[in-house]
Amino acid sequence: MKKSITILSLSTLLLLVACAETEGKNESENNNNQNNSEAVAQVNKHESNSQTAMNEDNEEEQEQEVVLDASTANVGDMYETNNGTFTMVTKADDFSPLKSGPITIEIDQLIIASGEIDKDAVRYSELESNEVDIIQLDYQLENRANEDVTFDMSRVTISTNTGKQLSTDYNLTTNLPNELMAGTFHSGSLIFLIEDESLEEVESIRIKIQGPRNSNFDTIGDDIDEELEF
């Protein structure tokens, strides 16, 4: 009888040990599964955050790549010209007309910009790089006389408040008139290259333009000498 009880007790003990091992194994598997689930969740969260960041960067890059016309662009916008693509740094557009004899100059806007010019523009210039900083003056001319006049926009000179004197860049400026027929209009842009200059320090320019002359080369208007502020 005692022997049977001992065998039974031993069997019971082995059963309890087996159950304990099974519970421990199940608990270990549950912990492993939980840890794996947490690890997967962390990876998914990281991938989701990375994807969100990439999407935001792509959206920001697409916004920066939007190219406008200079007349509709604002500070920080990219705009396009015949010679390249620029980012507008500073802009001013509230100016009184400049007048000399029968000539009136309406300044649409005065811009400081930084950007890249086309390879062809570099090829036909003395520039070493296609990355440039510019001052751009968009204008409209009107000759109110009943005769043709000489008014040379290709010889415009400016100086900045930082002490730089600049002449019109012929490689970047196109369609510059030197004569206006009676009663006609003309619009265009003057481009001046700024080198070794902090653009944020340029707060104003002084502009000089020779006065108009008639067919006999007589002066029929004063030279223009004005300061324009950004």
UniProtKB/TrEMBL annotation:
* Compositionally biased intervals (Acidic residues): 56-66
What is this protein's name? DUF4352 domain-containing protein
Q: Which UniProt keywords apply?
A: Signal
Organism per entry: Salipaludibacillus agaradhaerens
Signal peptide start-end: 1-20
Task: Enumerate composition-biased segments (Low complexity).
Answer: 29-43
For region Disordered, the annotated ranges are: 23-66
